[in-house]
User: Fold this.
Amino acid sequence: MLCSVPYVLGYIVIISAHNVWMLYFGRMLTGLASGVTSLVVPVYISEVSHPKVRGMLGSCVQLMVVTGILGAYVAGITLKWRWLAVLCSFPSCIMLLFMSFMPETPRFLLNRNKRAEAVAALCFLRGPHADHEWECQQVEASVQEEGLNLSEFKNPSIYRPLLIGVALMFFQQITGINAVMFYAETIFEEANFKDSRMASVVVSSIQVCFTAVAALIIDKTGRKVLLYISGLIMALSTALFGLYFKMALPNGNNSSNSDVWFTLNSASPGTESSISWLAVVSLGLFVAGFALGWGPVPWLLISEIFPLKARGISSGACVLTNWGMAFLVTKEFHDLIGFLTSCGTFWLFSAFCCLNVIFTAFYVPETKGQTLEQIEAYFGRI
Assistant:
């Protein structure tokens, strides 16, 4: 609820901006709010959800993110940027209004020894006919004292889920999702899809559709299956991206120029347009694959695997890793192309996607249908 304040203030600064520094400041405020909500929202949802639907509800975090991006793209076709900022300020106000009716999570309340409030919260969340007393006892059995000492990170039940969560966030960004998305419009232009703004809508629609599919099936298929399928699709699509650049730039042009699209334009006339369908297919496959697994599932898993007393600091470390890697991959993408060539860069992304699958197979636990207490107990045993 507090995040609504920097969201609204940030958009007010953007709306009233007279110079670029006001835009920077407004973006800093909205970025601060986005960072906090990306940490808190998955945890809140996992703690209030029933195990049978926790996967679906947890995946709705990413679904709402991509739906919001799609909405901004669609609105941006007709609205000027100031009016777009006005529109974007409304969701945070709506969040503030509706969250005022929501209870604190039962696990948090029990950790604060507020048992009556925890039972009331469960009654609100599960309905009057559920066995609230039994669920309270299950949570109480695993609730530990407040406070976490640094020495406790030697405990496998603390450091193993933390390492898995940080690795998931690292692998999510190292697949190159942001680099690919930033060049989506240009890929469509190379394929003679001239309305680049509509191209953004098409890409975002693919994201929304496949994220929705993931949300609907994740509690049936499990988390690991979706990560396998997603990783393999992304590995194939980024390999095809590399093949496209290799074929479009056969004369060594894709080696030294850091701007891959100036390089494309320097290729032999007609070369890139004759195979531009390959880039479009690769882009569609990549976005669909990411949305199916590696988009929503890591955010869901970091809200499930941490013990209650380490959930705050561990989730914070994972979110910091995610946004830090997103910044690093985005900033260094052009330099990477200059060093490895454009085809080599996308083949590197493909190799990381294969590593994603291997990492999932050996280290990521399946959490489908388990309570948060059972997941915590699992890490305590291994």
User: Anything to note?
Assistant: The chain has two domains: 1-102, 155-250+275-381. DSSP finds 19 helices and no strands in the chain. Residues 1-102 form one domain. The two ends are 37 Å apart (CA to CA).
